[in-house]
Amino acid sequence: VAALSAGVPVATRIGSRHAERMSASILVHAGLNALVADSDQRYVELAIRLATDCAFRSAQRDAIRLALARPALTDPAVYAHALETAYIRALTEKHLQPF
């Protein structure tokens, strides 16, 4: 999160460890799917692209800036409301009554 706050694009790989899942979740929630790899090979390719492709890196920095400007990502009250809405939707889809 500190790197993103500084505008630094960070590649992550979806994996089985908690840190990998958390990193991927944060990036996907921020709309930064281009920074999430689903395999070791794609992770290496993504890291190389971030290191060598200035236009791609710049586009990701712009995307980070826009993501951090959205209240759903940075405002705890907005995030809590969105999470509550997701829980209610999940319960409703399972034909259960929300509390």
Task: Walk me through the topology.
Layout lengths: L1 H4 L6 E2 L4 H12 L6 E2 L2 H13 L1 H16 L1 H4 L1 H18 L6
Parallel strand pairs: 1-2
CATH superfamily (homologous) name of the domain at 2-70? Glycogen Phosphorylase B
Principal-axes geometry comes out as: globular
Helical content band: 55-70%
State the separation between the terminal residues, measured CA to CA: 33 Å
Which CATH class of the domain at 2-70?
A: Alpha Beta
Mean pLDDT score, rounded? 89
The arrangement of helices and strands along the chain is HEHEHHHH
**If you consult CATH, what is the topology of the domain at 2-70?**
Rossmann fold
Question: How do the strands of the widest beta sheet line up side by side?
Answer: 1-2
Radius of gyration: 16 Å
Report on the architecture of this protein:
By secondary structure, this protein is mainly alpha-helical. It has a domain at 2-70: Glycogen Phosphorylase B (Rossmann fold, 3-Layer(aba) Sandwich). 68% of the residues lie in helices and 4% in strands. It has helices at residues 2-5, 18-29, 40-52, 54-69, 71-74, 76-93, and strands spanning 12-13, 36-37. It has a two-stranded parallel sheet. Helix 2 links the parallel strand 1 (12-13) and strand 2 (36-37). It is globular, with a radius of gyration of 16 Å. The model has no long low-confidence stretch (mean pLDDT 89).
